[in-house]
Structure prediction request, 219 residues.
Amino acid sequence: MRGSVSHAFTLLELLLVVALLGVLAVFALPDFHVIARGQQLSESAERLHALISMCRAEAMNETVRFRIQIPPDGSVRVLRQAHPLHAPHLYITPRVAWARAAFLLEDVWIEAIQLLPEGPPPIRIVNERLEFPETEIEPRPVEEIGVPVEIDFEPDGTMSNSLRCVLRDSRGFGLLLTLDGRLGSVMIEDWPPVPPDQLQRPEPWPVPEEPDYRPEDYE
Prediction:
């Protein structure tokens, strides 16, 4: 009599399923035109949080590097390696629907970014708040940075950097998102508002032309 064989899920499969469910739950909401204006900021923060989890899981699943790119206009793009061996420095837009979604809603943009120290923890959690010791919160306006800020997700699940970013909406309200790339932790908290008449949304950044990637050209 043959014995029965049980099949267990691997940690990677479970991580991917959790990430997919999180992203689907976030992006399956009604279109931003019917979302109340006052909810766009918090909704955008949750979408960005879900996107970070999704890119990390997809990098591990496909064994290629994924990248979140934040241009100087405060928008968000997703890219992936064309091929980890034949074209490791060429990045293209993933050919899946979620990678072309609106990660930030219409009236929301990333206003400022602060890159954080690299290396292993220690980190501190004080009053349920993620802190980087001896690091002041001093985000820099994205238009002053002048070049896209990139977060790379490696096939082993690690991330290239840690950062803080300020999300702002057209009402002047703000949220601070802290990403600890060492642990993959994300924290979202309130950020001081700005009077609407003092808002300065960055000018649109030219979208680069998509590389003409044909796998046979790199084999």
